[in-house]
Amino acid sequence: MRAYVLCGGFGTRLRSVTGDSQKALVQVHGEPFLTCLLRQLTAAGIVEAVLCAHYRADQVAEKLEALSQDAGLSLSMVIEPTPLGTGGALLNALRESPPAGRYLALNADTFLDSEAYRLAANANDDVLVAAWVEDRDRYGSLEINAQGRLLDLREKGQEGPGLVNAGVYAFNPGSFADAQVRACSMERDLLPGLLAGKGVGVLEYTGRFIDIGTPESLCRYVNDFHVKVMS
Fold first, then answer.
1. With 0-12 CB in 10 A as exposed, 13-18 as middle and 19+ as buried, what is 149?
2. What is the chain's mean pLDDT, rounded?
3. Which H or E run includes 197?
4. pLDDT at 217 over 90
5. CB proximity list for 213: less than 8 A, separation 6 or greater
6. What pTM was estimated for this model as a whole?
7. Number of neighbours of residue 193 by Cβ within 10 angstroms
8. Which end of the chain is more exposed for a tag (fewer CB within 10 A), N or C?
9. For the domain bounded by 2-128+167-198+208-230, which CATH number is listed?
10. What is the DSSP annotation of 96-133?
11. Over the stretch 176-198, which tens digit does the pLDDT of each residue have?
């Protein structure tokens, strides 16, 4: 199975740490964060990944071979000509490098255990992975029915504990076959379109989950998560 890794964002909130570097390539104990993420894909049985890049795509290109070797999977790259958002980046990559079958799509700034990717890869439906957090404020909350189907994606800012979108998806090859490549959001544009049709399943994941989008969360990853990942 192929994974499309969305790493085209500007990483504005992390600029005090990364400067003008690509966020997913931030160094964590001597290696890029992206290497650790790709290793989790390999551990889940994913053998091929496409990096969907825009901001500092030159840096991603420079490290492509090393990332592939260190993570143990085949890597290629698709560059957005202009910023397209999370949804547009995926649509652009699907056009430039079409999948042969079901595929994963995921954010490049979030760490999850390999089980999250395995869950999504083994599903038969269009699905997203949901993680339980104590504070949903930074994340998009989910409304789910009794059958485990997604009813609605809510904006960030919901308070208290609950399930949030972990930024990992699995789609069938025809799910966006008729979609035109355009600047759009995965959460606000592509997923609602699926909800209006055949729907989206939700897979509840109970493992580790953290994004590195802020200096505080990156520090937590460096000092806690990474140590555990490498032990």
1. middle
2. 89
3. none
4. no
5. 11, 13, 14, 23, 109
6. 0.92
7. 14
8. C
9. 3.90.550.10
10. HS--SS-EEEEETTEEE-HHHHHHHHH-SS-EEEEEEE
11. 999 999 999 999 999 999 998 88
